[in-house]
Amino acid sequence: MIFLTGATGKIGGETARQLIEKGASLRALVRDESKAADLKAAGVELVVGDIADAETLRTGLSGAQRAFLLLPNGEHQEANEKQFTDLCRELGVKHLVKMSSMEAVAHAETPIPRAHWAVEEYIRGSGLDWTMVKPNFFMQNLMASAALIKEKRMFSLPMGDGTTGMADARDIGAVCAEVLTADGHAGQSYEITGPEVITFHEAAQRFSEVLGEPVKYVPMPMDKFRERMTGVLQPWHLNAVCELFREIAEIGIDHTTDTFKRLIGRDPISLRQFVGDHLALFK
Question: The whole model's pTM is what?
Fold first, then answer.
């Protein structure tokens, strides 16, 4: 039995889908059962409740051999993930797979990577078998700009000239499904990237090539982004996201990895392929 968190989100949903294809026995924690109807229809056992509730987690983790820890970024994420780790140890889970990020390093300065790193260290000291899956920017994040790309052939984000090794959620899900079902991944931290390091200006060029029309990336001033998202995100989350995006704009990612190909045996999905696979959304 594999116990999943985050199974109705981008990465968790893709992980669940690929685990279902592998025939894995799954149990998933969900806050809203109506959003998990497809999982239930596919035979996934649902546990309805809140990640912060220890008794709900005990129900979900009881009898599970492996667990997948993927929580949305938030003020209480670190505490909730540490509690989850403690309960995995208490209830005899053998292998814990955590979704982290490439930005999570020992010298991380911004809140979200710092929290991920703190939990990574906590898990490493827990005595559990563990695997960290560490992607960076998700191609699927660009879907939020689909209407703007479709109507005005442009998109705007507060990333400046920062670089990313953006990866497709389908590839990240494939890695998660692999490490949750196969042996040999304990004690590994896997950095997952797409096939190239690009700026968001270059991402716009990839859109232009596939759509056959010029698409432009317009860097958004951070204060404008903050103003736009005030009221949409809670204050802690908004501040943390702004700090993370500032770090991407100023530092970014300077390398790709061959981790995906080593684990899965094929090249990662390119941004061109991603756009082509979702043509109706953007064109």
Answer: 0.93
pLDDT-derived band at 250 (thresholds 50, 70, 90) equals confident
* C-alpha span between 215 and 119 (Å, rounded): 39
Distance CA 129, CA 6 (A): 20
Contact (CB, 8 A) for 61 and 94: no
Q: How many other CB atoms are found less than 10 A from the CB of residue 83?
A: 16
Place of tokens 């995906």: 260
The H or E element containing residue 93 is none
The two three-digit tokens of residue 42, written as one number = 């596919």
Yes or no: say if 197 and 253 are a contact pair by the CB < 8 Å rule: yes
The residue ranges of every structural domain in the chain are: 2-196+253-282
180 neighbors 2 (Cβ within 8 angstroms) = yes
β 163-164/198-199 pair status: antiparallel
pLDDT in tens, 49-71: 999 999 999 999 999 999 999 99
DSSP strands (E only) in the chain: 2-4, 26-30, 45-48, 66-69, 95-99, 129-134, 154-155, 163-164, 188-191, 198-199, 216-217
Q: Which amino acid is at 144?
A: A
Per-residue pLDDT of 158-169, as tens digits, reads 999 999 999 999
Output the 3-class SS for 228-253.
HHECCECHHHHHHHHHHHHHHHHCCC
At the topology level of CATH, where does 2-196+253-282 sit? Rossmann fold (3.40.50)
Instruction: Give the per-residue pLDDT at 272.
Output: 98
